[in-house]
């Protein structure tokens, strides 16, 4: 079969698969649609819908029982790190671009946009009465926003470094967890009392709150801690030898689900600190999880780009599921020094147009392409105004000088390749791997 015919056949099959994903199909235990790790997931109050946020800058609304995407939400200029399902049926997304967007399940773009922070947003939380939305950011602040609009938002800014997590106590007070290894419980607006501060042993990545006000906090030292409202640690549970990066409290408050960067997901009995069971077979970083109402199921999102359903009672997947490892996109280039240098970039960029976008645009056909012109990718305005054409010289200069200096306004993480030999190897690899096939 001629190469053009094979390529056309692949395009047709991809279009059919995409149509089935978006229009419906048999119930699935795994929901596939993101082009990168699933960084956040939340379940609607009625348990029928889930929203996920991805490293690919999109959020997706899922029909959980049908296992299909109902709507792809495209707005943000960076990874969607946090999502929330609101009591009134709306959904919130927050991104490394510092913005919060509010959506309905109907068509169209966001119904409201909040320019919230000067750095990436890492967490969202909804107040018990549904009136407030709290956000946590790497700019060192947390902010509380009235969902009815009309307010600038309350600012919390005593953490020393990034704020990774935020939650509400049942009485409406805000709890924050930060890179400074503290959990802070803040008084209500207008109360001049000092916050309650619990100093832990490692950075705090995640929080979950029980109906009686107990706080579950976890982070880099593999451990979930249960804190009383006065900040005292009641119990500690080590989950696995990897940082805990996501927590969620069961609807009845009796159990906490904890996920780690190593792929372990444990269900912990809050009263005793005993691990009741573990999800069977994730094996990759699990970035996010959420309970469905009733407490029988958990929904997760991870580095395998999938949203999955699990039985909280047995730890087994709900329905048929494939647990295969994520394919190595650089396997065919084994032994190539340039490919090894590029390995630091695969989380954000693909090499082939058929693989789509991740946090950054695909590099397919990048040589000879003007900066900020890859189709269907949202670039920052400063990049759109630059006059750079990507070739061997400019790509080498990008990594010699560093993205922040060479392309001011970029969302690309700052990284330099100080070795001239490694820069040359990378350029030669990209010339081969990104050429049209």
Automatic annotation (TrEMBL):
GO molecular function: electron transfer activity; heme binding; metal ion binding
Mapped WD repeat ranges: 31-72, 73-103, 114-145, 156-186, 279-320
Record bears the keyword Iron: yes
InterPro entries per UniProt: Cyt_c-like_dom, Cyt_c-like_dom_sf, WD40/YVTN_repeat-like_dom_sf, WD40_PAC1, WD40_repeat_CS, WD40_repeat_dom_sf, WD40_rpt
Domain Cytochrome c: 333-434
Domain of life the protein comes from: Bacteria
Transport keyword on record: no
Keywords: Heme, Iron, Metal-binding, Repeat, WD repeat
Pfam families, alphabetized: Cytochrom_C, WD40
Protein name as annotated: Cytochrome c
The species this protein was found in: Hansschlegelia beijingensis
